[in-house]
């Protein structure tokens, strides 16, 4: 859908990478540029993982200082680290010392009662000056470390985009991207008047079709427009490769269920995949049949 936008992995803990049995660093060449988002608070472990990631070809390392879940807090990483700016700075410096790719931070605007603008500025200043961090992605909500679920923490604390704009104004030498509640490319364009970048999370997952116009609208790439069916069929070689490894089709298709959001045939697409992709032996034919459902629905609408 886009060859220009920077893709971030979901957060992977240092413990999983160092001690886990699976390959937590695998990705495909088509995903470049891609950043590994790490969860951890031990500088040596983070440095080890950052070095491994650079060797595997990642384009950036990102330290997550924004996730508020209980599991994350118990492991001493995520949003609770906002209260320990000096430790975050040590973590960033440890990673920067062993890799040549960028090391960045994703954070909130505050935690619990520590949500003043001064607290946020102090955190950014310490991490930038003592850790050498040059790029921050700011989720424009504070996080409540207790009392709210991770889902509620993404929705209940109010958004404060102007505070993030002010942060960029007060730290003009730093690269800053804004995150939180951004649903359209038009909204992204508005934010880019004040910020260096925009991060889109849930909307890109629930409505991935929005990414079809990113290269043209935001990066000025003059290329023929691609349609959602074009994208799906371009994935067939990847899907077939994963199926030969024993991956279930449903583990792939569940991530593209929303690609036809608000398009005639979207419901038929979702239903066919949901009912058939999990079955033993399900393959490309199931996806192609689902695509045909979309085509039929659109033809019926034209005839009507």
TrEMBL record:
Cofactor: FMN
Reaction it catalyzes: 5,6-dihydrouridine(20) in tRNA + NAD(+) = uridine(20) in tRNA + NADH + H(+); 5,6-dihydrouridine(20a) in tRNA + NAD(+) = uridine(20a) in tRNA + NADH + H(+); 5,6-dihydrouridine(20) in tRNA + NADP(+) = uridine(20) in tRNA + NADPH + H(+); 5,6-dihydrouridine(20a) in tRNA + NADP(+) = uridine(20a) in tRNA + NADPH + H(+)
Highest taxon of source: Bacteria
EC number: 1.3.1.91
Keyword annotations from UniProtKB, A to Z: Flavoprotein, FMN, NADP, Oxidoreductase, RNA-binding, tRNA processing, tRNA-binding
Chaperone among keywords: no
Keyword Flavoprotein: yes
Annotated site location: Interacts with tRNA: 64, 151, 154, 267, 270
Ranges that cross the membrane: none
Residue stretches making up the DUS-like FMN-binding domain: 4-293
Enzyme class: oxidoreductase
Family statement drawn from the similarity comment of this UniProt entry: Belongs to the Dus family. DusA subfamily.
Function summary: Catalyzes the synthesis of 5,6-dihydrouridine (D), a modified base found in the D-loop of most tRNAs, via the reduction of the C5-C6 double bond in target uridines. Specifically modifies U20 and U20a in tRNAs.
Protein name (database record): tRNA-dihydrouridine(20/20a) synthase
Gene source species: Hafnia psychrotolerans
């Amino acid at each position: 859908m886009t060859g220009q936008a920077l893709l971030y992995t979901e957060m992977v803990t240092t413990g999983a990478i160092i001690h886990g049995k699976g390959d937590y660093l695998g990705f495909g060449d088509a995903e470049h540029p891609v950043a590994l988002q790490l969860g951890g608070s031990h500088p040596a472990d983070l440095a080890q993982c950052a070095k491994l990631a650079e060797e595997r070809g990642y384009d950036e390392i990102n330290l997550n200082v924004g996730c508020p879940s209980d599991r994350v807090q118990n492991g001493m990483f995520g949003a609770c680290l906002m209260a320990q700016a000096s430790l975050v700075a040590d973590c960033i410096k440890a990673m920067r010392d062993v890799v040549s790719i960028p090391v960045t931070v994703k954070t909130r605007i505050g935690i619990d009662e520590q949500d003043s603008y001064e607290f946020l500025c102090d955190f950014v200043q310490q991490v930038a000056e003592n850790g050498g961090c040059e790029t921050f992605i700011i989720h424009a909500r504070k996080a409540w470390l207790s009392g709210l679920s991770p889902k509620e923490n993404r929705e209940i604390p109010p958004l404060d985009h102007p505070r993030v704009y002010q942060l960029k104004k007060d730290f003009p030498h730093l690269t800053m991207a804004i995150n939180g509640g951004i649903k359209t490319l038009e909204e992204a364009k508005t934010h880019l008047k004040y910020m260096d970048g925009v991060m889109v999370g849930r909307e890109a997952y629930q409505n991935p079709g929005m990414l079809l116009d990113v290269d043209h609208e935001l990066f000025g790439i003059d290329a023929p427009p691609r349609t959602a069916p074009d994208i799906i069929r371009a994935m067939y070689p990847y899907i077939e490769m994963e199926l030969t490894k024993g991956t279930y089709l449903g583990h792939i298709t569940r991530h593209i269920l929303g690609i036809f959001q608000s398009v005639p045939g979207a419901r038929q697409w979702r239903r066919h995949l949901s009912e058939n992709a999990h079955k033993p032996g399900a393959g490309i034919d199931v996806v192609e049949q689902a695509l045909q459902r979309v085509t039929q629905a659109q033809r019926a609408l034209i005839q009507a």
